Amino acid sequence: MKQRLVLMALATGLLSVPAAADVPGKGWIKREQIGRILAKKGYQLTKIEADDGHWEGEATRAGVTYEFHADPRTGKLTKLQRDH
């Protein structure tokens, strides 16, 4: 019985796939452009990745960290809120 449980646990672990960020799609603006957009608004880009069809990341301003989402084609910020 124990051997069977161990084998099942190992099999489950082997089948698990770690979560990963998406790959930027065709027509997406570059990460650097998002950084420039944020800089114009007084933020400094600290983290960015493609996720769920948009750019997502973190930026700081005056020592405060904010979370943002940006449209992948226009760079328009669709979410910008203080990170908790």
Automatic annotation (TrEMBL):
Signal peptide: 1-21
Keywords annotated in UniProt: Signal
Pfam families found in the cross-reference section: PepSY_2
Domain PepSY: 7-79
Source organism, top-level taxon: Bacteria
Listed InterPro entries: PepSY
The protein's name in its UniProt record: Opacity protein-like surface antigen
